[in-house]
């Protein structure tokens, strides 16, 4: 897999620091699954963070810090003993929507549910991804046929896109399997799927896409883009 487009250093730093919104984090983690070079970079950042932490001056603790910690542990164990709820049934995650041969469902989405493919236009379908514990996460899959394209749009916020299958060109660059893209209010583009194969992308949006045309805006609002 020839991956040419990767997240920037500041995005990896935000991931390592744990400061990314859930939807954006899932897209970055999906890129990591596909890109050995970025996995090495993130491992180096995490190791660097550990070195920095070790070099910090020790913080003084209260004389009774250990006793207070042990008291809290005892209190938690007593609470658990007093409450005896029946064990919860394992959560069943619906099967993901079918993908073409060669496309793999990201491990980052293993606990997520996704709807069936839904029609949004000729040769275009989408699937809503539901993230456990993060109903605010705006994550979805787009599946667009060869030669088809999304309407021209810009962004009122940030959109992260990870290509899972196929290729598209948006006037700035060609994006293929494994490639990553960040678009914001400074980007005005029209992704066009290249001939020969459909294209499937995972996307997360903070804010909204702003389509040029009125009909496209209506469809975008209907599906939460």
Automatic annotation (TrEMBL):
Domain ChrR-like cupin as annotated: residue spans: 107-202
Biased amino acid composition, Low complexity: 81-92
SUPFAM superfamilies for this protein: RmlC-like cupins
Chain segments carrying region Disordered: 78-100
Pfam families on file: Cupin_7 (PF12973)
Stretch forming the signal peptide: none
Name under which the protein is recorded: Transcriptional regulator
